[in-house]
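Project standup — Tuesday

K.O.: blocked on the structure for the chain from last sprint. Re-posting the sequence here as requested.
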Amino acid sequence: MSDSKLTTLGLVLDLEGRIVEAVKHEGSYPQFQAGTHFVYYLDTDSIQRFLDYLKDTLEHGHSFGGELLLNETHGHLILSVALLKTGTQIVMLSLKERQETLTVLSEIIRINSEQLNSLRQAQAFKHYSHDEATAAYLREWTALNSELVNTQRELAQKNRELEKLNHILHETSMRDELTQLKNRRAFFHDVIACSKQTIQRLVMVDLNGFKSINDRLGHHQGDRVLKAFAHYIDEHIQPYGGEAYRLGGDEFALTIPETNMPDLKTWMTALDQHLVTLDATLSAAYGDSLLERNSLLADLERAMMQADERMYRHKALRNKKRHDFHA
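H.V.: unblocked you, prediction finished:
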């Protein structure tokens, strides 16, 4: 039998918990006697726990991840056990540490395969008589191994499906539902992560005149404007290696590697020209700040505050110019 990094003990029990045989025995475990009920080896507090594991195994076919304590007579060892019902018997493994279901199944399959090989070799060398009982035993272990392999395959498939769903859920949680830009949660995550590699320029953008669109034309038209605006900034910031985010309402953020930074005034003028095609009352206010490499959350918050202050100064200046023009 080959060594295993996972299992130190393997016992075959009958359905009542009596030991049939030890199929693996390493370390300082006691010699388990065939025909003895396993509770004979357990500490008082672990007896009921084992009986509960046994009940679960009979009802559900398996019980994974339980811990049992051998009594003082038998070394006071802690067993991290997994049980699996196999027809009229139960395979119980003692693991070196708690393991996930797929890992435990792989180990049980490995041990079962070794038992099959041992039986076949024994038959080949006539160490066992070729009676019907031995043949039935061999068939039972073969069927068990096939069943375990199928179970493992099904679990692996379900794990892949779960990973795919988790990925979809993660992506959904990082996207703004209306515009499909990344959202505020993604913004904080991405900016901190990217700052480890590069210095970034942070640009905060706010739509001037957006509230009047909702008031005049309704929220449906307001949503249409937000989506068109989001599509434009996303498409036009990507050539510079930048990323666009909707932080909420009509508040957006852009991040661009400082080495790729376009002339911001020229870029924003082109944005204003596009906004006029959506609605003549629209324009954009903006403010920017620098985010140094290896920035922390507090650094990002300071950069956002600085960019916000510049954006509101820009907004106030534009409003003043508009007022002076109409005066």
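K.O.: great, moving the ticket to review. The longest helix spans residues 132-173. Helices lie at 44-60, 101-124, 132-173, 184-194, 210-217, 219-237, 264-278, 297-326.
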